[in-house]
Known about the structure:
Elements: H1 2-28, H2 36-47, H3 52-58, H4 61-65, H5 69-79, E1 85-88, E2 92-101, E3 105-118, E4 121-132, E5 136-145
Antiparallel strand pairs: 1-3, 2-3, 3-4, 4-5
Amino acid sequence: MKFFKYIGFGLLSIFLFFIGIAVINTANQAKPSETFIPFIEQNMPEIAKWDKAVFERLMSEDAFKSITPEQWELYLNKVSSLGNLESVGQLTLENSSSVSSFSNGTKSTVVYLVPLNFNTGPAHAKIVLVHTKDLGVKIHHIKFLADRLLQ
Length: 151
């Protein structure tokens, strides 16, 4: 009987350990409505000025440096054809994930689809944002979708 008692306590301890990890992960996860949505709403007008320095400031270092200066010039020339931003619509959360590690803390990643109205017509931006305690919110990827960009 003692054997089963020790097995029961062992299994209960393992179960409680994993429940504790799940609770800690959930508690440290960035809340989209408090973290990501204000970031997008505040920075989208700046992004739509099509200034490379704004992208450098808002993007993660790895994401920004993965594109050559020539590619940046081509990209900004193309997306600047969208014109001036007039309004930002209701954001749609497409995906959300969070990863915790003991050495790096919690890293939350979200994907938002952002409807935009420019003076040349409607468009969407698909934005992948990453949040860490050290860096805050950074853009990992941004893609503008509009009929005008296909011309």
